[in-house]
Amino acid sequence: MATINNNTTQQQQPDNFKHDTGGFRLSDYEANKAKQRLRDKGGMLSHKSSLKHSKKGRRIWIENPNFLNDSGFSVGTRYNIDTDDIKSYGCNTKTVFILKLDDNGKRKVTATMRRGKPRPIIDIQNTKVGLVFDNSVEFVNAKYVGNGTIIISEAS
Fold first, then answer.
1. pLDDT class for 135, splitting at 50, 70, 90?
2. Which residue segment(s) compose the domain that 69 sits in?
3. Which pLDDT band holds residue 93 (cuts at 50, 70, 90)?
4. Higher-confidence residue: 87 or 129?
5. Could you tell me which of 56, 151, 155 has the C-alpha nearest to residue 96?
6. Is the CA virtual torsion 56, 57, 63, 67 positive or negative?
7. Region 109-122: what's the mean pLDDT?
8. Contact call for residues 53 and 73 (beta carbons, < 8 A)
9. How do 110-114 and 139-146 pair as beta strands?
10. d(CA 21, CA 128)
11. Which pLDDT score is estimated for 5?
12. Which range among 6-15, 29-38, 66-75 has the greatest average pLDDT?
């Protein structure tokens, strides 16, 4: 557990929980709600997202503040993307995308403002998306598996 000092109080938080959002900061209330949702779901979070077509190819767009914040992927957080061909992640597909939190990551969780509050967005659009998920795939499942890792696979 990591201790975080807030001018007046001290809180205990899991080491893999990101409270600072890189310029935007979750309120203590929002951070506590996120931790409670994670505990209520037994540490397993998932989000179903549509796989869109665009001029540049296939696109994975994840805009779900509860899922992303609870997984540690809040606004401004850096991460890397990789692919893996093994089924050890509990997915029924051969290839999955792996998003891993990394302070020096090449990608960054972006934001849009809704009602004056930043909403985290993960937008993955590159040639690998089209190679991994063929045109028959309409939905993907993003699953938080712990340790700052999200696995994206074909939704069943």
1. confident
2. 2-154
3. low
4. 129
5. 151
6. negative
7. 87
8. no
9. unpaired
10. 28
11. 41
12. 66-75
Distance of CA 20 to the CA centre of its chain: 15
Summary mean pLDDT of the chain: 75
The structure tokens listed for 17 are 């929980």
Spatial distance between the Cα atoms of 105 and 109, rounded to a whole number of angstroms = 10
| Strands in 1-84 per DSSP E | 2-6, 9-13, 20-21, 24-25, 45-54, 57-62, 78-84
For residue 93, give the nearest of 156, 143, 51 by alpha carbon: 156
Residue that the structure tokens 């990551």 belong to: 105
CA distances from 17 to 1, 4, 110, 113, 148 (A): 10, 11, 18, 23, 8
Query: In sequence order, which residues have a C-beta less than 8 Å from that of residue 135 and are 6 or more positions away?
Result: none
How many independent structural domains does the chain possess? 1
* Phi/psi at 136 (5° precision): -80, -15
CA pair distance 144, 71, nearest whole angstrom = 6
